[in-house]
Records
---
Amino acid sequence: MKPIDLFMQFFRREGWIYAIGLTMLMAIDVAFLFVPQFIGNAIDTLSNNKEGLVTYIYYFILLFIIITILKVISRRTLLGSIRRMEYLFREILCSKALQVKTTYYEANGPGKVMALMTNDVTSLRVALGLGVMIVVDIIFYSVVGSIILIQKINTVLAFKIMTPVFLIIVTIFVLGRKLRIKQRSAQATYSDLTEFGQELFQGMDVIRAFNRESIISNSFEKINKLNYKKNMDVALLDAILTPLTRIAPFICISISIFICGHLAVEGKMTIGEFVTINSFIMLIVGPLIGFGGLISIVQKGLASLDRIMDFLHLPTETIDDTDEVLPLEDIHIRYLDFNYENSKGHALSQVTTTIPKGSFIGLVGKPGSGKSTLFKLLIGLQECPEQSIYFGNQDLAAVSLSKLRNSIAYVPTQSYLLSTTIADNIKFGKNLPMHETVEVAAQKADLYRDLGDLLNDDLHELAEEGHDLSGGQKQRINMARGFYKNAPYLLLDDCFSALDAVTVTTILNTLHNVKEQTILCISQRLEVVEKADKILVFDEGRIVEEGTHKELLANNGLYRTLYEAQKGEAHYEEA
Ligand SMILES: Nc1ncnc2c1ncn2[C@@H]1O[C@H](COP(=O)(O)OP(=O)(O)OP(=O)(O)O)[C@@H](O)[C@H]1O
């Protein structure tokens, strides 16, 4: 996508309203171009016994009524349509953010996108609203006004008067380029600041519990200082640009008063003409006062446009709108090697196994041994190498992402809750024919034990991120969401960790009776997978053992070591 394509999306929808606003603005500027001549003519009536002066006063009143009405309409339409642009661009960015590969967020975090959707879109709005208003004023008052001025006095005289303006415009352009570079850099640090702010507020409880306020505050100070420094660089250039544009008009008017004053004294110009010419010069140089501001607004807008375009060019996932679902089949994993883009070592090495359809499979192992990575590949959050994972005969790498994700229900370790009702959190958007009812899903996740009243209350909305729930309650609502989807494959990523033994047993008893679903369950707690049809034991990215609980205990391998370590802990806790 090119910048023009982005803006065309706005102009196609709102272009005509924007055009009305722009036309009104031009009409106002044209009307203002008559003002200096009117003033001059009105003053010349004074030397003719004020004949016609009253008529000029009526003209003035009429002109300013028309200008005021046009101004109201132009501001409403132009600035109003620009607000629509802001709205539209945020929609485009949000839709892109939902399609960008998840690896982008692993590398960059969410701060940059948040800054794009707030700060950068606002800079573009200001550039296209206020910036365009200044440009129109410059074109009509300064350019057209200059042409009229040249006709009224001679070209050489006009150039003499306007020379300082040309010199200052060139300087402003040179400084403007520098400003854009500085602005881009300042906006990047703003992203870091947003990101840090987000981390800070998410981890507020942990920060307080560990008394880390001063350390966090020092880290924040560093980022804040950098942001301040970069913005000061921008402010310095802004500070030079603005006075430069203010000086130019005064020099021009001084030159004009000097030259035209002499002509008036020598009788080569009437007082009315003298006033007309000086009023024109005021009109011409007036918008130039805003020229420095314009350069700054435009450069900020361009820097934001660069950043937005960079983001819009990122590769995306191809998501179609299919409701297709993979059939329930055995999953075959064949010599699967995988490493993350930003790391050298293999996260998974030569992983080979078969997962029979309808089975309950446990995945256990040391931390960082590759269990969650396998889930990320299965659900397409990371790109799976070709010919490594098959659903029946179907290579996962050849399955469309939508179909794959329709076929898999995923319950992550970290609960994700929206501030809406529990039922809406369970349903979570799209409704496919295979879905369970909310009641069945809630039953399976044992929600009625303590959340039945809240679940039945259609008006009760959860606090942000479910802050008004316990860790276990959040986990069970997340599980209910996975059960509600009723997909052929269910992935449970260590989501029993916050549950008590009774709840775990209740939920597992239900899951072990399910035969029309393949369930893969990662758990650090081995009692969760004890009754699994098969347990895969991971170590350093490899499956080092597989079998039932009994077989693995008999193996005397890593599983037994882990099991005895946990049993030891349990005895210790009981004692
Ligand atoms: N986004 C990532 N980028 C780079 N490396 C990663 C990323 N995610 C995980 N890893 C690395 O891949 C390896 C496997 O991680 P994974 O999360 O799959 O382990 P795990 O067995 O699920 O661990 P745990 O039980 O602690 O959750 C680890 O060495 C980890 O550091």
---
Amino acid sequence: MTTTIPTTAAAVPVGPGLSMFDPIFIGIDEFGQPVYLDVIYRNLLTAGEPGGGKSGLINNICGHAALCDNTRLVLFDAKLVELGPWRDLADAFIGPDIDQAIEVLRRLLVVATNRYAWLLANRRRKLADGDGMSVIVTIIDELAMFSTVLGTKAQQEEFSTLLRGLVSLGRACGMPVVAATQRPSWDIIPASLRDLFGYRAAFRCTSLNSSNIILGQGWAEQGYTASDISPTNQGAAYLLAEGGVPRRIKAAYLTDTDIYNIADYAAWTRRPSGTSTPAVNPTEWEMAA
Ligand SMILES: Nc1ncnc2c1ncn2[C@@H]1O[C@H](COP(=O)(O)OP(=O)(O)OP(=O)(O)O)[C@@H](O)[C@H]1O
């Protein structure tokens, strides 16, 4: 009997074939059922006190996006270490630099505007799987660093205005935004910004008011408050999906080793000889649709 040893594939499919249009697994609910998010059409805001588990949730999204074909990452992390493991496969990785943050947001808005022109020309309202256009996922860890700490007041305001623009435009044109903050207060998350996020995850908060700032006014009074999450129950949160009722979840947790392993594998699948070809030089990345 003759056996044929397959030759090494010239290109390994990403994922394989994983897409941002696929539901993203992020953990389980209180009945042990898996919880999935459709981040492609809904931005995600995650907030809660330090150590509550926000980064865990964000890393689940990053891991999924990193493994997806035709998906690009734009990462903002003033602390560098939270999203740092994914930096090699990101189109842009912005550290504690408000000028760069503003510049990149401006470019993203240009891309979003171009995509709307494309949608209009094609008699469409939103991007769909199969359009062939890349999904650009923007992830911001510690929103407050860019909107209240780094730079001048004018720069912080410009950052916040541009971000508001991207969050409102991005969802229909394949450019979702995921943002996290440790400071659930009105100056960081005004209702006008919060309400643009179709998903909101409230990790442990110190007060009913903080929980309401994330989920929306009135939920704490109805019994849905992240202040009832035990400090030792990291990764537990209330997740609200637009139009629904907050749901208690426990985010899946990736250790640092898991994260680096996924990031390394994803970077390998995205190598120029693979099926997905990122910009050769991140400074020359071409985000236009
Ligand atoms: N889903 C989870 N399951 C079990 N443990 C978790 C989970 N999420 C987080 N933890 C534990 O809690 C610690 C803090 O989590 P994480 O860094 O995600 O919190 P955070 O809210 O992002 O904090 P910070 O705001 O300081 O960045 C982790 O190092 C881990 O030990």
